[in-house]
Amino acid sequence: MSLGQRRVGATDPPLRRPVAPMLATPVDAVPEGADLIHEPKWDGWRCIAFHEDDRVYLQSRAGRNLTTYFPDITRAVRTLPPGVVLDGELIVWERGRTNFALLQRRVTGGRGLLRMVNDHPAHYVLFDLLAAADGRPVLDLPLSDRRAQLERLLGGAPAQLTLTPQTTDMGQVSDWLTEWTVATGIEGVVTKRLGSRYQPGRRSGWWKFRKHLTTEAIVAGVTGSLHSPETLLLGRFDRWGRLRYTGRTHPLHTDQRQELGLLVSAAAASASPPRRRGASVAAAVAGIVVWAAGPARGIAVRAGGADNGGGDRGGHGVRTPAMEAPGPIRAGQARHVGVRRAAAARRSRRLLRRTMSPIAVRPVCHD
């Protein structure tokens, strides 16, 4: 049985991992209603924590084991009664704001992990309870009851275990979207029905509204075919007029691939690959199939996520070039862009150290 198909109810035996987290349906406006409660949408990693008899296990949204990377959270969860299963978001604070890059470094830190734990401890922002202290599943209880049990459970818990705020006040929601996105880096608002059951892997009774930012980027290339691109490779010109790779979009939907394929093909017909080294290295990093646009062709991109006070980074799309750059360049791709594989790898590393902040996640087509 797959992660998304696992069904667990209040009459089942103790929860066994993995358990698919309940999901929220994206919406274009924050829902309103007397039976709804609102919470901040945190910019971190979804995590389900299991306090088993002899250990704590941290599970990612996709079912992967995160335990090794968060020894500080493991210690904090161990202070709770055995049997509890929690749902929340892992975040790392820096100067009063969430810092997604520091969160990512937990996985890539290697021998420096303990230093990162000491310098930038993680926090586990909790918003749901899946199993009570005796190991009894509480998924069939309404959200309001699960929340009350979670509040009692966290009384006296370590500071790294944080209860997420809730409100029914739309004025407070407005403050979250205007002030908290700038001050703390939250992504938006999650709205939940107070009577909702916890349904693993399902989208029912939960909604998410993500604040979006808009910026512009140069389409420097594509992955996939020219007429039906899979992703767009984006860049920006630095102060010296060199095009620098800044990231790529999420995979495009079918309708987006068709519409953007027409625009990209038209641009490619009249453009040649940029001659500057920064641009050619960008091609090597991404292993692109074809140059799609010259300096005159731009595209607006909508960055879903936190407002960083004037920058362009945001959302669950491009976080850092290192995380978004595809894997090793295959034979043929490297030759296509005129760079040998070994040279491409060396230049990629140098480029990633110089690259500007990543900017884009979702393309928005416009003329």
Automatic annotation (TrEMBL):
Residues 124-248 form the ATP-dependent DNA ligase family profile domain. SUPFAM superfamilies: DNA ligase/mRNA capping enzyme, catalytic domain (SSF56091). CDD domains: Adenylation_DNA_ligase_LigC (cd07905). InterPro entries: Adenylation_LigC-like, ATP-dep_DNA_ligase, DNA_ligase_ATP-dep_cent. Pfam families: DNA_ligase_A_M (PF01068). Keywords: Ligase. One of its GO terms (biological process) is DNA repair. Belongs to the ATP-dependent DNA ligase family. This is ATP dependent DNA ligase domain-containing protein.
